[in-house]
Design brief:
globular, mainly alpha
């Protein structure tokens, strides 16, 4: 009995170590990716106009829409599946190629109609050229899925970042030469081509054409709920873009999408880092609810701690960041950015819960809640946007995320059997710290010229010191235990970096 307990504890520690070390590489990847993207946006915002960003946004909407509504969910099914998955890889790869060709042909034919819908004829050829990325993605080596399943994120770092670097270089170079939306399009396409090539250089697996319908059906049994959830997620995350682009015009879509990209950092960056590591780790714990509960609470606590911090910084610094880095012509995005960053915070917290549902084989929960979220957005988007423009669209998005997040929380507590007190502490304490930080930044920094680089840096530094000081006090007097958790993760991450 004692031996079993020791083995169990050893397995827990080993899984934590692999998860933390994987987290180092995913975190490093996302930080590197985001820094390159921010630098690219800052440079191209000076070279291009909002309409160019809007044209790129329309093209990405068309591609993402078709990709979303044809997803098989095989990737998540393979990560979640217990045991050896090699017998399933060739079938999954073959279905990916068939799907890729169908998507490419559909995109090519649909491009003129998409351009007419958005009243942007220039978008037609951009969509048709960018459609080639679907083929590159379809032929990508299916073996790279092992990087996520086995928590080998050091290899995934090389695979993913290679495309980001090429996208960055090509976009900036062509931005200086062309001064139009094609710079963004060709950079994006070059990034996908690079990842396709690197996938075969970095993993030894060589997929072959195989079509085992029995295996495909087995994978789709799990993947169908991922498909449903992904379809609904697309509609609730991109439906506002479609509405803004159609009724407010391409230029306003460019404003709105840039606001969304900057504001969504908590959801797209923090959650992406954590979900990449947490989902496969949760999947390995799915048969032990106590281990899952403890792991989930730690992940949720770290996510809330980071998300509230980033949200508070963006809410306070949005206008000054815009003036310094993007230019005064982008100031209309500031009010929308502030609402959207709060929506991103809610989405970030909800995403930690949806990972648990998928890991325990209950992806239908996420699908049903996303359906509710879509319904709320459909009800609110037209009157809000008609009344307040992109600010109204942002408000509709915020409400459509905030209300379902409450439902996510209730169900997550039941599934993981977490105590309300522990869950509440993980949310309330960073919220209070962020609120104090924002109030100090708003009311006690009046003598600082925040539109200059030095003043802006001091402004941000004050916010950072206030937030982390509040967290330190919560650790000391309210047993928040954030610093001990961070130290443990950092220790494992540092060992991973050595």
């Amino acid at each position: 009995m004692l031996k079993n307990i020791n083995d169990f504890a050893s397995n827990d520690e080993n899984l934590f170590r692999r998860t933390a070390r994987g987290g180092f590489w995913v975190f490093f990847l996302r930080i590197s990716h985001q820094l390159l993207q921010i630098i690219k946006i800052i440079i191209l915002a000076r070279l291009l106009n909002p309409k160019d960003f809007g044209l790129m946004g329309i093209s990405l909407l068309a591609i993402a829409g078709l990709e979303t509504f044809s997803k098989t969910g095989f990737h998540n099914a393979l990560v979640q599946k217990k045991g050896d998955i090699r017998n399933y890889l060739d079938t999954a790869w073959t279905f990916s190629i068939i799907r890729g060709f169908i998507l490419f042909i559909t995109l090519y034919i649909a491009a003129p109609f998409v351009a007419i819908f958005f009243k942007a004829p220039e978008a037609k050829f951009i969509i048709q050229i960018m459609g080639a990325a679907v083929i590159f993605e379809a032929f990508t080596n299916i073996g790279v899925i092992h990087f996520q399943k086995e928590l080998e994120f050091n290899k995934q770092f090389i695979y993913k970042l290679s495309g980001t670097l090429v996208d960055f270089v090509i976009s900036i170079w062509l931005g200086l030469l062309l001064r139009n939306a094609w710079a963004l399009a060709y950079g994006w396409l070059a990034g996908h081509l690079t990842r396709f090539i690197v996938s075969y250089l970095i993993h030894s697996y060589r997929p072959r054409f195989a079509l085992d319908l029995k295996k495909a059906k087995e994978l789709f049994g799990f993947g169908k709920w991922i498909l449903g959830s992904t379809m609904l997620t697309f509609l609730v995350t991109q439906g506002d873009d479609i509405f803004v682009g159609r009724f407010l015009g391409v230029a306003m879509l460019g404003f709105y999408q840039l606001a969304y990209r900057i504001a969504n950092i908590p959801a797209t960056e923090i959650t992406h880092v954590i979900s990449q590591v947490a989902f496969p780790a949760y999947s390995k714990m799915q048969d032990n609810i106590n281990r899952l509960k403890e792991a989930y609470l730690k992940v949720f606590q770290v996510t809330a701690f980071l998300s509230f911090f980033v949200t508070g910084i963006i809410v306070a610094a949005a206008p000054y960041f815009t003036v310094i880095f993007l230019g005064k012509r982008w100031l209309p995005i500031v009010p929308a950015m502030r609402l959207l960053v709060i929506a991103g915070l809610c989405s970030s917290l909800a995403a930690t819960m949806s990972m648990v549902f998928s890991a325990v084989g209950r992806p239908e929960i996420d699908t049903k809640i996303q359906a509710v979220r879509l319904l709320i957005l459909i009800i609110l988007i037209y009157p809000f946007t008609g009344q307040w423009g992109i600010l109204g669209a942002s408000g509709a998005v915020l409400l459509s995320i905030f209300l379902p997040t409450i439902a996510f929380s209730v169900i997550a507590l039941k599934v993981t059997k977490c105590k309300i007190k522990a869950f509440g502490k993980a949310v309330i304490l960073p919220f209070i710290a962020a609120a104090i930080m924002v109030l100090v930044m708003f009311f006690l920094t009046g003598n600082i010229d925040k539109t200059k680089a030095a003043g802006f840096s001091l402004f941000i530094l004050i916010g950072v010191l206030v937030y982390f000081s509040a967290i330190f006090l919560f650790d000391k007097f309210l047993r928040y235990k954030m610093y001990s958790l961070i130290k443990r993760y950092l220790r494992e991450m540092c060992q991973a970096a050595e």
